[in-house]
Amino acid sequence: MPASATSFFNQILKIASFDVIDLTPRLDKLLHLNATEPLNPNFDALGFGSLYFLNNMNSMLIGFLVYFSLILLLVVIDPFQKVCRKLKVSTLTERLRSMLFYNFLVSMMAESYSLMSICTMIGLSKISFSSFGEIIQTVSCLSALVVLIIYPLFIVIHTIRCLKNA
After folding, report:
1. Residue 1 lies in a domain
2. Is residue 85 a part of any domain in this protein?
């Protein structure tokens, strides 16, 4: 392909994958990681230039961390909604529910589920516990694998629970 077309498609890929901030240099510096080659040239062309999970997730990692932090917050404050009626906890939990499960975040999670799956499968090829950075990468990759398995079950259970309450 001509250089201008390649540059154009690279920019479109960055926009489509929400790759706003390049976290790879910061992660490499913070975790003291050795550079790895991509799994193969096809993955490199799609933006998966490393075998490390966090490096491949790049700025989508921020979105996932915010999303799962909000789910954790919902799980923590949900039992208090009946006890603390004066503090309007039920209003907060309903807003969180609508934002997390019935809003644009669900579509973002559904659309980026495949991205997370690809990054996880690539990361599983580089499981290592030889340094602190590789331990962080491996644990995060295995945690993402657990999330990939549990997330659909959580959505189904939550939907059934909401249907019973309706």
Report:
1. no
2. yes
**Inter-CA distances, 80 with 21, 83, 91, 122, 157, Å:** 37, 5, 12, 40, 20
pLDDT digits (tens, 9 = 90+) for 32-77: 888 788 888 888 877 788 888 888 887 777 777 777 787 788 778 7
Q: Is the pTM of this model over 0.85?
A: no
Is 101's pLDDT higher than 70? no
Inside any domain, residue 122 = yes
Q: Which of 66, 34, 63, 65 is nearest to 50 (CA)?
A: 34
- 150 occurs within a structural domain: yes
**Domain span at residue 103?**
21-165
User: How many domains are there within the chain?
Assistant: 1
DSSP 80-131: GTTT-GGGTHHHHHHHHHHHHHSSHHHHHHHHHHHHHHHHHHHHGGG---SS
Tokens of 163: 């249907």
Q: Distance between CA atoms of 122 and 54, rounded to whole angstroms?
A: 11
DSSP secondary structure letter of residue 34: P
